[in-house]
Write a structure and sequence with these properties.
The complex is a heterodimer.
Chain A (H helix, E strand, L loop, with lengths): L1 E10 L8 E9 L3 E5 L6 H8 L7 E6 L2 E2 L5 H10 E4 L13 H11 L6 H11 L16 H13 L5 E5 L7 H14 L4 E6 L2 H7 L2 E6 L2 E7 H6 L4 H9 L11
Helix pairs in contact in A: 3-4, 3-5, 4-5, 5-6
Chain B lengths: L4 E10 L2 E11 L4 E5 L6 H8 L7 E9 L2 E2 L5 H7 L4 E4 L3 H4 L6 H15 L6 H14 L5 H5 L8 H14 L4 E5 L7 H18 L2 E6 L2 H5 L4 E6 L2 E7 H6 L4 H17 L4
Parallel strand pairs in B: 3-8, 3-9, 6-7, 7-8
Antiparallel strand pairs in B: 1-2, 1-4, 4-5, 9-10
The chains are: A alpha/beta, B alpha/beta.
């Protein structure tokens, strides 16, 4: 069954300029999808629509069969618990004045999740590879990769069905990036993942399905391995040939 | 033959903390060298030290010779003669490197006129304007006359970086220092800018110091690399040797990380 369904959605701030144009997308339970695009492709706007932070100008978005309605408080509270997000910059997305355990507990408080919050926070920290001790410290005491782990712990603590990640590893060093990708891959065994990124290599390593966005339109979508092996759209082909590879140009196929 | 840039046991400190320690490498005329490292490895500080641009509060010890002249400890009025002529820098973020209140044509004209003055020529008026347009054309900007009259905010990221490159070229430096010049750009734009840099460096016979955290980008751009980790060079040598048979564990871990994404793209993951 589809978890989140985007049906013919368009969006624009000005009438004559569409940021998103007739986008349709289905996110099945347990799937991992990479939304790939460059600046101005509309990928972040699409993510905002998926989060219910913005309403589409036309078309519809539904979650587990019910229309996404940002005006419906009760619906949104349950939606927020099911759909969580991790942003690009772990430095600006964590409150510097709160301890890590208070930061991670925030969704539990604001969404009024019942249960033993301290235990849930401890479990979330363990699940992202941080020790229990981390909870007593403050964000500035952690490295960029560890801060992104804290942000991920905050996202997974209410037990979401879907995790949305917006360029979640783009600000990280290469070696840290592979570790966070490994973590997201492990977590995605228990939830669906929508991974928004300009980095097609990371998406190739992490996502079963891939959606290529160009100027607000989906130009190609499918199973990642198939799309990469045989890209159909000229833009996908250009993206792929533009990615620098480790082996020198003359030896690559 | 003496090196264009000769860095010998360079140590950069803030207070008592060493940010770069005992770093030595040389760049000969026309040579392309990559400085690889993750955040905090000291690669950008090294670029700044090479041109005497370290911020106040940081002290450099050791020796940095640029075009045969010692850089460390020299006052700005001495170094100013060297900057531009011996080495020019292209930074990561063209939006902060460009003056937002000045037409980009004028920003390219300034270093052009200065270089002409240094060479004992005078360049102004129509001749200067013509030289600006020729330079914009050389960095493959479309419609140079229109672009010259634009402000930085009216241009795309890739176009801005082309302007920054044109400004560096206007100095006619022997060494071009590029500090993460494509990191802020989209991947398709990055490919264009890398091709442009490659062409310009070859055509003009410039040496290149290319600073990046991105191994594949470095591998395709330079001949020799220095791998920096926490301010220390852990490995150096020709690209094929360092990337083909890395000696240091850190280099190996960087390569394994880069290769994991490469392999995923090739369907080997």
């Amino acid at each position: 069954m589809s978890l989140l369904r985007v049906d013919d959605v368009s969006f624009g701030y000005a009438r004559d300029r569409r940021i998103l144009d007739a986008v349709s997308l289905e996110i099945a339970a347990g799937d991992t999808i990479g939304l790939v695009g460059e600046s101005g492709s509309g990928k972040t706007t699409l993510l905002r629509l998926l989060l219910g932070l913005q309403r589409p100008a036309s078309g519809s978005i539904s979650f587990e069969g019910a229309p996404l309605d940002p005006g419906n408080g009760a619906f949104m509270r349950s939606f927020r618990r099911q759909v969580q997000v991790v942003f690009q910059d772990p430095y600006s997305s964590l409150d510097p004045r709160q301890t890590v355990s208070s930061i991670v507990a925030e969704p539990l408080r604001s969404l009024r999740v019942p249960g033993d919050h301290a235990q849930m926070v401890a479990d979330a920290l363990t699940s992202v590879g941080l020790d229990r001790d981390a909870g007593r410290r403050y964000p500035h005491q952690f490295s960029g990769g560890q801060r992104q782990r804290i942000a991920i712990a905050r996202a997974v603590v209410p037990g979401p069905k879907l995790l949305l990640a917006d360029e979640a590893v783009s600000a990280l060093d290469l070696t840290t990036r592979t570790r966070i990708v490994d973590l997201l891959r492990r977590l995605s065994a228990g939830m669906s993942l929508v991974f928004v990124s300009h980095d097609i290599g990371v998406v190739a390593a992490l996502c079963r399905r891939i959606v290529i966005l160009e100027k607000g339109r989906i130009v190609e979508a499918g199973v990642t391995a198939a799309v990469l092996a045989n890209p159909q759209h000229p833009y996908t082909q250009r993206l792929l040939t533009s990615v620098p590879r480790l082996k020198s140009k003359d030896t690559s196929p | 033959m003496t090196a264009l840039l000769d860095i010998d046991r360079l140590t950069i400190r803030t207070g008592t903390t060493a940010l770069v320690r005992d770093l030595s490498f040389q760049i000969a005329a026309g040579e392309r060298v990559g400085l690889i490292g993750e955040s905090g490895s000291g690669k950008s500080l090294t670029a700044l030290a090479a041109t005497g641009l370290l911020p106040a509060g940081l002290t450099a010890q050791g020796s940095v010779e640029l075009a045969g002249q010692q850089v460390i400890g020299r006052p700005d009025h001495v170094l100013d003669r060297l900057r531009g002529t011996a080495a020019a820098i292209v930074f990561q973020e063209p939006l902060t490197a460009l003056d937002p209140l000045m037409h980009v044509g004028r920003q390219v004209a300034e270093p052009l006129a200065r270089r002409a003055r240094r060479d004992g020529r005078s360049l102004s008026g129509a001749a200067l304007e013509e030289a600006v347009l020729a330079l914009l054309d050389e960095v493959a900007l479309p419609d140079p006359a229109r672009i010259a009259r634009a402000y930085p905010h009216e241009l795309s990221g890739g176009q801005r970086q082309r302007i920054a490159i044109a400004m560096a070229l206007a100095c006619r430096p022997d060494l071009l220092i590029a500090d993460e010049p494509t990191t802020a750009l989209d991947v398709t734009t990055q490919a264009e800018i890398l091709n442009l840099l490659d062409r310009l460096v070859r055509e003009r016979g410039m040496a290149l110091l290319f600073i990046s955290h991105d191994l594949p980008v470095v591998a395709n751009t330079v001949e020799r690399v220095v791998v920096l980790r926490k301010g220390e060079a852990v490995e150096a040598g020709p690209v094929s040797t360092v990337f083909g048979a890395p000696q240091h564990d850190y280099t190996r871990s960087l390569l394994a990380a880069a290769r994991s994404f490469d392999d995923a793209l090739e369907g080997r993951a």
